[in-house]
Amino acid sequence: MLASVWSGGLSGLQGYPVHIEVDCSSGLPYWEIVGLPDAAVKESKERVRSAMRNSGFSYPSGRIIVNMAPADMRKEGPIYDLAIAVGVLKVSGQVEGGAWQQALFFGELSLNGDVRPINGILPMVIDAKERGAESVFLPAENAQEASYIEGMQVIPVKNLAQVAKILKGEEQPVCVDQIAFQTLKLSGGNADFRYIKGQSQAKRAMEIAVAGNHNILMIGAPGSGKTMLARAIPSIMPELSFEEALDITKIHSVAGELRGAPIVAHRPFRSPHHSASSAALIGGGSKAKPGEVSLAHGGVLFLDELPEFRRETLEALRQPLEDGFVSVARVNAKVEYPARFMLAASMNPCPCGYFGDPERKCRCTPYQISRYLARVSSPLLDRIDLHLEVSRPSYEELGKETEEESSLQIKQRVDAARDLQRERYRKEGIYTNSQLKGELLERYCHLQPAAEALLKSAFELMKLSARAYTRILMVARTIADLSGEVEISEAHLAEAIQYRTLDRKYWGG
Amino acid sequence: MPMTVKELYWYWLASTPGIGIASIFRVAQMGFSLEELFTQPRLIENNTLHFSEQIKHDLKSRANISLLLEEVDKIERAGICIRTAISPGYPQRLKDLWRPPAIIYTYGKLQNFPPKCIGIVGSRYTSRKGAAAARELASTLAEQGITIVSGMARGIDTQGHWGALEVGAQTIAVLGCGADIIYPKENAELYAQICENGMIVSEYAPGIKPNPRHFPLRNRIIAGLCQGVVLGEAGLRSGAIITINYACDTNRDIFVLNKGDGGGNQETIHKLNAMGATEVCDAHEILQYYGWEIKQNTVKQQKEKPSIPVGLDFFQTELYNLLLKGDFSMQQIIDLLGKSASEVSMALTMLELKGLIEKLPGNMFGIKG
After folding, report:
1. Residues B134 and B238 occupy one common structural domain
2. Under a CB-based contact definition with an 8 Å cutoff, are residues B51 and B35 in contact?
3. CA distance A179 to A148
4. H helices within A100-241, ranges in order?
5. Does B123 fall in a domain?
6. Is residue B145 situated within a structural domain?
7. Predicted pLDDT at A259
8. Exposed end of chain B (fewer CB within 10 Å): N or C?
């Protein structure tokens, strides 16, 4: 006797179909799973047997062989319990496949027969849809997530008995209601710049950074509000489209980071601790899970206390910053995860944190300070366009009753600037000013002679480093876009120069 | 000038770690000359000299003319000049100290100790005002032909030396380590400049590393080399107060810099006033105190900053006038002038490029100079 059931597996963010065949023949009781199962899949034997017994089914005696095709892909996790159980039910004649021959089954079984939620539903169901599948049985908790795939009949199930009833036609499957994406977007907002008092320069810098998709580094004493500012960044980023949201949700689904949410409706804000390993940040490990850079895809990756991160961890950031994706090599496959994020980092000006603070004395020696600053490697600094000094707000500033600009107002200006850039770079294959390089930089950041002279004198007077040159041009381009102007003027350059603190040599000397 | 044999004996004794001027006095009190001590090692064993076993061993192992000549030759070839307390090149003023150094090592272009020396000391952690005041004082004094003596430490010391070097004058730095060692490290450039235009002085043999207990002793040499010592910005417990105490004990004039603009530590100023220090607000008061001639039309005066900057637009002028009142942070400027962050950033860059203002650590801005 032979029965077959469909399920799916994951390779990175790409789903693939898994065909599960269950064969039962007479002989001594025996059970074997073949087709590269990992330990969690092998253990499904015990879960399936107990779940069947406790749901009122009989477990067939005899030799049971479960084969999972394709046999050369490693099957991971407890996601096949339900599919195997359905296969065993079919092979023992307790249910008929009937109308559901082509349906997919996902879910982990509990010993009492309940179906438990699993990770990575979205990419697997998307793949099944592309291959023509029409219905999928999955844990009730995962149903919302899959409901966003148009044209797929999603059947949420609570336990094995319910699955059997549906298969036998004794119960009509209920379909999930999709929660409108727009509704989700409105609920549970991000931080808002309206609630941050003072810090006008910092807010302006954030606006510029988001408008040109520039990476930003904040330097300031502890308690100056660096983290609060960073948290508000997603609130002024361009609106999340449904397609983008789906892409982001895929990553979060695979990483098991959805935490019950049906879809990621807000731009992610990730702030890994500085003790994070490079595998945690970039992705990888034995399961090749996506790392923080991928979880921040489409949003903000915030690295607090930048110099405290391990050097090799920071170095590993260079590839995703450059390419917008990470490739994680594992034993038998190479997985690619998207990682297009805006980097916001923060650091103290010196080891004690109070260098330049008007109220507290800094006790660090210039040597200690220069060593502290040198911990952030220059290749990484090369990829950060704006440096911003944030000072601690005084008590008076905090208590002021002024109306601060809301994120929505800032966002409108950001959107306008982004539209200008998209229009201008339509034929170039880039989207924002932060992507300008080489020849494109020359073409689009052309300077008038007066502006050229200003930049030249700035270089000589302020002893700016060579790397500052292109960064200033790019940021000036964004500032010009924010004011809706075609040419970069002296004023735009003058403002851009203020955001190159770390290139200035007054630090530590 | 080659060393005399007498100086060599003196060098032998004085350069041994653990032996200072007091030990040499004791030898003299015992009634035998250094030559006798050198040639008769059994005398070293004399218990009334209170030499430790280590010192006895060191002295005996180095009691060898050719070995000593080799040592001296090595030091002199490095350009370092050895001056024992009996050498003609030893500064007479140091002998006013209760315990003058038995030997000093000097390095640099300056060969003789100039007659007019003023020390400038103060805290290692300074405010911008305090640093600027010390530097200006040093520059003016140096222009009038007075040599600035200090310790090349961070803060006021560094400012004092640079102030003198700025106007092309000579300056003397007294170190708490060997004369060939740069401490603190970040003053490498300053050290090089002092070597070219002035003198490095140390009582420690070349190669000796800085040690916390060296610095208070180094301070007595600063006090000893000068007619007077000026205290710049310093806290009550600052190491600079040690120098002032030495100056007091050695009968040197003490000045305390008080420009009356809130810079400098008021408590310290009061304490020094109580000690009998003279409060000064600029270099000319010091010159007048000594009755030294004041030369006019010096370089520094020509460098006076332009009082009315030209070519500024309305807002830039407003901003410049605001900064004339003091240093302000970016946020304060934005709030006080009621302009947007981008307008203020622009104007600040423009003023900075005109050389009128400067950016300070902590996102502060102030008038340049």
Report:
1. yes
2. no
3. 9
4. 121-130, 143-146, 160-168, 181-186, 200-212, 226-232
5. yes
6. yes
7. 80
8. N
Q: Are residues B121 and B212 in the same domain?
A: yes
Show the domains of chain A with their CATH numbers: 2-168 (3.30.230.10), 186-429 (3.40.50.300)
CATH code for position B344 = 1.10.10.10
List pLDDT tens digits, range A438-454: 889 888 988 888 899 99
- Residues sharing a CB contact under 8 Å with residue B180, sequence separation 6 or more, in sequence order: B78, B80, B107, B206, B207
Q: Tell me the C-alpha distance between A112 and A109, whole Å.
A: 8
Within chain A, what is the greatest distance between any pair of CA atoms? 92
Domain of residue B318 covers: 314-367
Q: How do residues A107-130 score in pLDDT, each as one tens digit?
A: 999 999 999 999 999 999 999 999
Q: Which of A389, A398, A500, A507 to mutate to test the interface with B (most CBs of B within 10 A)?
A: A389
Number of folded domains that form chain B: 3
- As a whole number of angstroms, the distance between CA A288 and CA A333 comes to 10
**Cβ-Cβ contacts under 8 Å, A494 against chain B:** 345-347, 349-350, 353
Interface contact A438, partner B, CB < 8 A: no
B363 CA to chain A: closest CA distance, Å? Answer: 6
User: Do residues A310 and A376 touch, judged by C-beta distance below 8 A?
Assistant: no
Spatial separation of the C-alpha atoms in residues A246 and A248, rounded to whole Å: 5
In percent, the amount of chain A with pLDDT more than 90 equals 55
Q: Say if residues B15 and B103 touch (Cβ distance below 8 Å).
A: yes
User: What ipTM did this prediction achieve?
Assistant: 0.81
pLDDT band at B302 (very low <50, low <70, confident <90, very high): very low
Cβ separation of B361 and A507 shorter than 8 Å?
Answer: yes
Average pLDDT of the segment spanning B302-307: 53
Q: How many Å apart are CA A344 and CA A126, to the nearest integer? A: 32
- What tokens were used for B273? 């006033």
Of A200, A220, A509, the CB nearest to B341: A200
Find which of A495, A501, A504, A507 to mutate to test the B interface (most B CBs within 10 Å of its CB): A495
For chain A, positions 354-383, list CB contacts with chain B under 8 A. Answer: 355-358, 361, 363, 365-367
pTM of the model: 0.83
- B103 close to B21: Cβ distance less than 8 angstroms: no
